[in-house]
Amino acid sequence: MTDATGLAGPTPSPSPGIPLDARGVVTARRPVNWPRLIATLAVLAISAALAVSIGTNENLHWDIVGTYLFHPQILIGVVVTLQLSIASVAFAFCLGVLLAAMQQSKSPLLRIMAGFYVWFFRALPLVVQLILWFNLALLFPVLGLGIPGTPLFVGWDTNALITPFVAALLGLALHEAAYMAEIVRGGILSVPDGQTEAALSIGMTPGKALRRIVLPQAIRVIIPPVGNQFIMLLKASALVSIIGGGDLLTKAQNIYSLNYEVIALLIVASIWYMAIISITSTGQYFLEKRMSRSTRAATVQGGPAIRASAEV
Amino acid sequence: MNAIIDIHKLKKSFGAVEVLHDVSLSVSPGEVLCVLGPSGSGKTTMLRCINQLETIDAGYILVEGEPAGFTRDHQGGVWLATEAERAAQRRKTGMVFQGFNLFPHLTALGNVMEAPVHVLHRPRAEARQQALDLLASVGLADHAHKYPAHLSGGQQQRVAIARALACDPRILLFDEPTSALDPEWVGEVLGAMRDLAKTGITMVIVTHEVGFARDVADRVAIMADGEIIDCGPAERVLDHPATARAEAFLRRRH
User: Looking at beta carbons, which residues of chain B come within 8 Å of A107?
Assistant: First the structure.
C-alpha cells in the first residue's frame, strides 16, 4: 500500500540492494496485512449498518429525546444521581480508612471485625442490600438509642427515617466502603515499613504516624483507584431506581410510565450518564497523570537502600 | 557513674530463631560506643530493642533509669506502657537508620520540624529556627527547602541525623548509617557524626567502619551469634581482643 520513495541518498549504500533515504535511513515497502484489512472493513460495515438502522428507525423518536433532555424532572434526577454518588463515595472513603486502620490494628478482634465487614459487604449483591435497607422497617419498626432496663429511649419511626434516598445512600456507601477499605489498605501497605519506624523513632504514637506520615504518602496510590470507584458507583447508582431512589433512571422511568416513550427516555438518561462519566473520566485521567508524576519523584529516595544488605 | 542505657540479659527471637542470647551491656552518659560484628550477629536487633522498634522476649533495658516499654506506679508496680507512654520513652532516643527513612513528602526542613511541631507542639517559628540551625550544623543550610528525592545519599543521611536531634534526645542510636551509601558520601556522614561525638551526646553506633570506631569510640563492643564477645576501651578491643572469635572477626575486617 505505502510506496517507498527509494531516493538515492548522498551516502553510498553499505550493501548493494538496500535503499537509504537522504538521512541514511533504510526505506522499505510495507506488505499488505490482509487479515487486518478485512477486519477493518467488516467492523466499518457493521457500524454503518447499525447507525443507519437506528438513525432511520421510526420507532425511535429523536424529537422526544430532544424534548425531555432538559426536562425539569430529568434535571432533578441528574442532581440526585450526583448527590448520591458524591455523598456515598465520601462516606465510603471515610469508613474505608477506618476499616483499613482496624485491619492494621494490634487487636485481633478489631482485625477480625474489619475483615468480616469487608467479606460481608462484598459477598452481598448491591441490589439485595438496597432492597434490604429500603425494607428495614420490617425488621426494626423503630430506630433509636436507649439504655436497657431503663425507660430512657429516643427513637424514630423507621419508615419516616429511611426514605428511598437514605436507603439508597446507605446501600451504596456501605457496599462501597468494603472496596474502599481494600484500596486504602493497599495504599497503606505500599508505604515502606521504614516510614512508620522513622515516625515512631521521633516520638509519634502509631496513630499519629499513620495520620501524619503514612496516609499522606498512601494517598498517591489511593486516589487513582478511588476515581475509578467513583465512576463505577455513578453507574451503579442507577440500581437505586428499583427502590424509587429518585435518581436519573427513576425519573426517566416515572416519565415513560406515563407516556410510554421507553426508548426515548432511556436514551435521555444514557446521554446524561455518558456526559457525566466522560467529564469525570477526563478529570480522572489528569489526576492520575499528576499522581504518577509525584510518585516517581518520591520513589527515587528508596534507591540506595535497596542495595544495602539485610541485617538481622 | 549511673548508666544511661543498661541492657540486662536481653533475649530476642524471631519465630524459632533466637537472635539475642542474654545480652548485657551498659552505656555511660556522654559515651560513644561502637558495636561491631559480622552480619546477622544481632547488632541491629539490639539497637532496635533499645528504641522499642522490637519487643523484647526476656530481660530488660533501662533507658535513663526507666524500663523501656514499662511504667512504674508509685507503689512500685510495673505496668506495660501504653502507646503514648512508649512514644514518650522513644523521644529520649534519636535514631538514624541505614536506609535514611526520610519522609519523602516533606522537605528537609519539614522532616526536621515534624517532631518538634507535631509531637512536642512547640511554636512553629521556634521549631523552624531550631531546625534551620540543626541543618546548618550538618552542613545543609542551603538545602533546607529541597525534597529528599533531590538530595544525595550523604545529604539525606545528614538530614536524618538533624531530624533525630530535633527532639533534643540525650541518646542517639545509629543503625549502620553508612552501609547504604555510595563510597563517595561515606566521609561526609562520618564527619557529621564525629562533630556530634564532640558535643557530649551519648551515641551507640552499629557500624562496619573499624577505622571510624578507632578514631571516635570511647568503647567498642564486638558481637557474634547474638552475644557480646568482647567489650572495652576502643584501643584495647581493637588491638588486643580478649577472645579468639573477636580476634578472628577483626582480622577479617582488615
Answer: none
How sure is the predictor about B139, in pLDDT bands with cuts at 50, 70 and 90?
very high
Q: Are A151 and A227 in contact (CB under 8 A)?
A: no
Note whether residue A99 is domain-resident.
yes
Of A195, A200, A300, the CB nearest to B103: A195
Contact predicate A50/A60, CB 8 Å: no
Contacts of A291 in chain B (CB under 8 A): none
Residue of chain B nearest A213, judged by CA positions: B103
Q: What is the pLDDT of residues B71-129, one digit of tens each?
A: 888 888 888 999 999 999 999 999 999 999 999 999 999 999 999 999 999 999 999 99
Q: Give the distance from residue B155's alpha carbon to the nearest chain A alpha carbon, in angstroms.
A: 11
A85 within some domain: yes
In this structure, the number of other CB atoms found within 10 A of the CB of residue A186 comes to 14
Residue A95 is assigned to a structural domain of this protein: yes
Instruction: Work out how many CB contacts closer than 8 A connect A with B.
Output: 117
With an 8 Å Cβ cutoff, the interface of chain A facing chain B consists of 192, 194-195, 197-208, 212-213, 216-217, 297-302, 304-305, 307-309, 311-312
Residue ranges of chain A with per-residue pLDDT less than 50: 1-4, 6, 8-9, 295-296, 298-312
Does the pLDDT value for residue B210 go beyond 60? Answer: yes
Entry pTM: 0.76
Domain count across chain A: 1
d(CA A100, CA A217): 15
Structural domain boundaries, residue A129: 64-311
Residue B182 to residue B193: CA distance in whole angstroms: 17
Query: Domains along chain B?
Result: 29-52+84-253 (3.40.50.300)
DSSP line for B129-168: HHHHHHHHHTT-GGGTT--GGGS-HHHHHHHHHHHHHTT-
Q: What is the CATH number of the domain that holds A121?
A: 1.10.3720.10
